[in-house]
Amino acid sequence: xxxxxxxxxxxxxxxxxxxxxxxxxxxxxxxxxxxxxxxxxxxxxxxxxxxxxxxxxxxxxxxxxxxxxxxxxxxxxxxxxxxxxxxxxxxxxxxxxxxxxxxxxxxxxxxxxxxxxxxxxxxxxxxxxxxxxxxxxxxxxxxxxxxxxxxxxxxxxxxxxxxxxxxxxxxxxxxxxxxxxxxxxxxxxxxxxxxxxxxxxxxxxxxxxxxxxxxxxxxxxxxxxxxxxxxxxxxxxxxxxxxxxxxxxxxxxxxxxxxxxxxxxxxxxxxxxxxxxxxxxxxxxxxxxxxxxxxxxxxxxxxxxxxxxxxxxxxxxxxxxxxxxxxxxxxxx
Length: 333
Known about the structure:
The protein has eleven helices and 13 strands. By secondary structure, the protein is of the alpha/beta class. The chain folds into two domains: 5-177, Thiolase/Chalcone synthase (Peroxisomal Thiolase, Chain A, domain 1); 180-326, Thiolase/Chalcone synthase (Peroxisomal Thiolase, Chain A, domain 1), CATH 3.40.47. It has a five-stranded mixed beta sheet with strand order 1-7-6-4-5, sandwiched between helices. Strands 8-13-12-11 form a four-stranded mixed beta sheet, sandwiched between helices. The chain is globular.
């Protein structure tokens, strides 16, 4: 019996229908298409509309599609981990709500919060349940309704974020495929530069916090940008060196879609050409925990069994990390 690794055996994404273009943003805040595109690479983003709709609705759609695609019965799922920065509510967890909505009655479920790095944290965590032999089928969902915490009168943040979800199924592999290595890091001193001021136990919601617009994303762009460029590039290079990978060995870089300039810097450090970088930020913006699974979903038909893939992310906290995996199936067949 060979070593058990956790392999992605299916991927599915979901984005809302409503498209918020740069042109429409010009009518909401002082900005323009050239300014947005040159600084972020974003042209449009998806927004979840409808009263009472939240991250669980998008996550559930992604999971339903994943179960159908992989011909997996919901009751066969052992565990669902939801990576989210915008849970439906403080409790119960969004993962529990998703499990209920898809009929996953035999699993346990919980949320993991690490801002934009949450999907990688969740993927690494889920892989351990598989590697130990404890579970056979684990779903990791990345879902965020970022529009719920964006101030659309603040141009430095409202241009960046969109809504979306993606989900992967992890199953045991004994043929050397799946997740090979992960490097995850955090630095809590970065919290002053990127956070949500109110709504937690330190500063509960009040008339004062609402009037002061403290339930929206706060970001000090320059220090966040500098930290993201260095951290994503460093950790991606580190995981390549640790696994004796050259740029020629890497089939794809799957970077968190926060800013095209950050993505370009990471690819340059790795020595990976643009033809090997998954990029959809121009259409979806930064969907936080959904960016990486949405990329894998859109590029699925170009992935081949055995492909070396590097995932990389950076988020508020600060949090960052990289995962090296070998793709486990020929997606184009």
